[in-house]
Amino acid sequence: APMITFSNVQKRYGAVPALIDINAEVARGEVVVVCGPSGSGKSTLIRTVNRLEEIQAGSIQFDGQEVHGSLRGKQLNRLRSRIGFVFQSFNLFPHLSALDNVMLSPIKINGASREAARATAMRLLDRVGLSNKIQSFPAQLSGGQQQRVAIARALAMEPPAMLFDEPTSALDPEMVGEVLAVMRSLASEGMTMMCVTHEMGFARDVADRVWFMDAGRILEAATPDEFFRNP
Ligand code: ADP
Ligand code: ADP
């Protein structure tokens, strides 16, 4: 079964249609890059997957579970914690060190011991190249470093898939590469990923499929070769 399945998804903000008739799948291990003009529904689409946005009709299955069904409270939080989400803004807890930011969810949500959570967090911060910054607070880190902490924090819940919503758009240009490098390495290890990004080099080199959205619809779902082929 696919990791993510959108079936007849419809979403409006008041009278404004944001998603129209979305039918699409993300296979296990697949990297999908979602692109398209501003306002075409990319961010809305990705935010429906962990129910940061509600939908009016249709269904979304994540790893075999209906996201927009009757899940509430703890169950919904538990599902959300299994869907790694990286935002444009880094969304770290400002009063917690990098290490504590990464340790928090495994302790709170999974009931992990402090030692186990700490070991996992150290391993993940090392993996994103920040083993020398574990005691730093977000304000002491560059944007690229903060975003790498945010990725490590998402990975701490061992999610079967990761969603990225313009993860490099708020970064100074010199920091974009360090974040894309982490995303590339995740992709090469088989992580299922859905990425909203304007980084077309990443789309060309890393995506298995590119979804092109316009006015709330997915107009094209193609391989990068097909998508970037000159007409
Ligand atoms: P993209 O990510 O491609 O820029 P969005 O998903 O942010 O597109 O927006 C899709 C459409 O929904 C746009 O017309 C946008 O103005 C509208 N929209 C997005 N968020 C809201 C909101 N919170 N309230 C009302 N309209 C919204
Ligand atoms: P890199 O590109 O390797 O992240 P930078 O030259 O951006 O390195 O940053 C060097 C150091 O300066 C970082 O380790 C970080 O601690 C600090 N730093 C950089 N940018 C900021 C920022 N915007 N706010 C706070 N500290 C920063």
Automatic annotation (TrEMBL):
Q: Which Gene3D superfamilies match?
A: P-loop containing nucleotide triphosphate hydrolases
Entry superkingdom: Bacteria
Q: Which residues form a coiled coil?
A: none
ABC transporter domain location: 4-231
Q: Pfam families this protein is in?
A: ABC_tran
* UniProtKB keywords: ATP-binding, Nucleotide-binding, Transport
Does Phosphoprotein show up as a keyword for this record? no
Name one molecular function that GO assigns to this entry. Answer: ATP hydrolysis activity
Xref: InterPro entries: AAA+_ATPase, ABC_ATPase_HisP-typ, ABC_transporter-like_ATP-bd, ABC_transporter-like_CS, MetN_ABC_transporter-like, P-loop_NTPase
Q: Which PANTHER family match?
A: AMINO ACID IMPORT ATP-BINDING PROTEIN, PHOSPHONATES IMPORT ATP-BINDING PROTEIN PHNC
* Family affiliation: Belongs to the ABC transporter superfamily.
Q: What is this protein called?
A: ABC transporter permease
In which organism is this protein found? Alsobacter metallidurans
